[in-house]
């Protein structure tokens, strides 16, 4: 359940409801549901997103990077996206810090020198501040600075669901096409074996 799906006013209530269900359902079904702890530094998470070598096509970020012509690849920028949340919520958690660290680790493992953490899927009243910059604004900014190629990676999402598909493959793509910016979209980790193995290890 994303913040954008319920709006900032109802999001805390929705989270509380989900946590209550998480506690009650296992008791009703006599099963246990283990919770995954912080996995920002887990090798499987970073490996699934960005490892050079060992068959680069198997890893989502380098495979996207490889689609950029070799002579321009070293100048490409990585743009990592995550779901925006209200700034008031972000003040009370490690959301930004964890995303920034993940982007740094993946960028380093993939061998990309310039990377940026941006946000998508903002919703709610305009007067309520949410985390920025917006992905489309960042693409315009980079093009204005002379950047030609970007790898767009939804690092804050596990699957290519409709929100990722629309925000990145429709809206961001339209912006990129309009400003002459070559954007290669990396997929989410999905069921990548390294990610699945990481979940097993954390459980």
Describe the structure.
By secondary structure, the chain is of the alpha/beta class. It has ten helices and four strands. The chain has helices at 3-6, 11-29, 43-49, 60-65, 70-73, 87-90, 95-110, 135-144, 162-179, 193-202, and strands spanning 77-83, 114-120, 149-153, 182-185. The protein has a four-stranded parallel beta sheet with strand order 2-1-3-4. Helix 3 (43-49) packs antiparallel against helix 10 and helix 8 (135-144) runs parallel beside helix 9 (162-179). The chain is globular. Residues 1-11, 39-45 and 51-58 have low confidence and may be disordered.
Quick gist of this model?
This protein is of the alpha/beta class and about 200 residues long.
Which terms summarize this structure?
four-stranded parallel β-sheet, 203 residues, disordered N terminus, alpha/beta
Mean pLDDT: 78
How much helicity do the residues have? 40-55%
Shape: globular
N-end to C-end Cα span: 22 Å
The number of helical runs is 10
Beta-strand portion reads: 5-15%
User: Which structural class do the helices and strands define?
Assistant: alpha/beta
Strand order of the largest sheet: 2-1-3-4
Quantity of strands, as a count = 4
Query: What series of H and E elements makes up the topology?
Result: HHHHHEHHEHEHEH
Q: Specify the biggest β-sheet.
A: 4 strands, parallel
């Amino acid at each position: 359940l994303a913040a954008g799906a319920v709006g900032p006013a109802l999001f805390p209530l929705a989270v509380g409801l989900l946590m209550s269900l998480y506690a009650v359902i296992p008791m009703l079904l006599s099963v246990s549901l283990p919770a995954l702890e912080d996995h920002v530094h887990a090798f499987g998470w970073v490996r699934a997103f960005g490892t050079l070598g060992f068959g680069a096509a198997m890893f989502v970020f380098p495979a996207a990077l490889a689609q950029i012509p070799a002579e321009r690849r070293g100048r490409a920028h990585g743009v990592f996206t995550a779901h925006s949340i209200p700034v008031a919520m972000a003040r009370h958690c490690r959301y930004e810090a964890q995303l920034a660290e993940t982007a740094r680790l993946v960028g380093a493992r993939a061998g990309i020198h310039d990377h940026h953490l941006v946000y998508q899927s903002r919703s709610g009243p305009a007067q309520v501040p949410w985390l920025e910059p917006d992905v489309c604004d960042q693409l315009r900014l980079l093009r204005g600075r002379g950047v030609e190629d970007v790898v767009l990676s939804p690092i804050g999402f596990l699957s290519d669901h409709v929100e990722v598909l629309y925000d990145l493959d429709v809206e961001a793509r339209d912006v990129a096409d309009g400003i002459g910016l070559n954007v290669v979209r990396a997929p989410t980790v999905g069921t990548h074996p390294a990610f699945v193995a990481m979940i097993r290890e954390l459980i």
